[in-house]
Design goal:
With about 120 residues, the protein is mostly beta strands. It is built from 1 helix and 8 strands. The protein has one domain: Jelly Rolls (Sandwich), CATH 2.60.120. The termini are close together.
Length: about 120
């Protein structure tokens, strides 16, 4: 699996994460990246939900910054760089991507971000 980004109005996508895990269970979603010391470059943790709803991400027990992308039907709703330990943000989404800090620097609301095989 990989995470692909297609800028709004463009037809070509680029890969922004190649080492991808999914947090599909309740426990995996609750834990997220807490208690990890680091993540590799080009890493992504993907949270998939059955429906779109306002969803929050916190950085409690996450000692490194993250780029977080909220999407609804693959369309980016919000992109935020969260600080270690104290970061908190929310947006409507049916999928959330937690990425290595700097990975989503060129991702903007309205772009397409999706998990692909």
């Amino acid at each position: 699996m990989r995470v692909a980004h297609t800028p709004s109005g463009k037809n070509q996508s680029t890969t922004i994460a190649t080492t991808v895990e999914t947090a599909d269970s309740f426990l995996a979603q609750a834990r997220g990246l807490m208690f990890r010391r680091s993540i590799p470059d080009e890493y992504g943790l993907v949270f998939r939900f059955d429906d779109a709803s306002v969803r929050d991400i916190h950085m409690v027990f996450v000692p490194f910054p993250l780029d977080v992308v909220w999407t609804r039907d693959d369309v980016v709703q919000r992109v935020e760089r969260l600080r270690p330990w104290t970061g908190l943000a929310k947006a409507e989404a049916d999928t959330i991507f937690e990425l290595t800090a700097g990975t989503a620097a060129n991702v903007a609301a309205g772009d397409i971000v999706r998990l692909t095989e």
